[in-house]
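pinging the channel bc i need a second pair of eyes. not urgent but kinda urgent?? the chain im working w is below, pasted from the shared doc
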Amino acid sequence: MTAQILATLLPVFLIAGCGALYGRFRTPDIRGLNTLNMELFVPMLVFAVLADRQAPLADYASLALAGAVVVLGSGLVLWPVAKWLKLETKTFLPPMMFNNSGNMGIPLLVLAFGEKALPAAVVLFIIEMLLHFSVGLYMLSPHTPLWRLLRMPIVLASLAGLAVNLGGVPLPGWFLEALHMLGGVCIPLMLFALGVRMLDIDFGDWKTGLLGAVLCPLSGLVLAVPLIWWLDLSGLQAAALWVFAALPPAVLNYLVAEQYRQEPHKVASLVLIGNLGSLVVMPLVLALIFTHVYPLA
């Protein structure tokens, strides 16, 4: 199982390393690259996943609620910690709340539990993405009117994808295939841009990154345990929530911080060190799940 986890995580660091190597000899326009990703490729991926997966959302209402509480509750739990340590909350809290449920969570759950875990993985991905591009953006820019948030491509794509999913609207296969191909560009592009950005990081802040690598999964798991009991989650849904709660910060946190100019160097440190930390955290969490939550035959 550890080998499977490494096979999922190592490509993340390989792509980021390629970005760092390229950035070492060139000076690419990372801000323009991130804007293109945010306004085109990421919305295409979100819509394609929501519209094409056809996840049975009604059967996963409790899991969706639990996922939302984990995301929002992590921010509430760690807010006094950030204040006590005199950390900038707009920089520190979003990476602690919004985890890597897309490019790490979905493949990790499928690798660990098989294709039957895909609906749960997609539901949690939907919840995290919607909260990230509503509550998360409001945290960075609290004076932004709600109607401006609703005009953002990522939010519109999420709402449209949910409408297609819940309404059972059939879409042509060629159309979805094109969206999947274009949307698939965003994940490696985000990782590549993160690698380039890492060249400018002052590793004098490595302590903050290490702190985040511990607090991000810890806060999620502390919330997940009572939620599993309270919402009576069991079996695969309980296991999926455990994995979701322990995921590291999403690469999208860096992309958003870059766009809003919210200390992207520090956010990149939180993201990179947090994902490095997952090489230790995720094997431990999966071992616990297989032993006590969802034993495999």
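so The chain has a mean pLDDT of 85. and The first helix runs from residue 2 to 25. — does that match what u expected or am i reading it wrong
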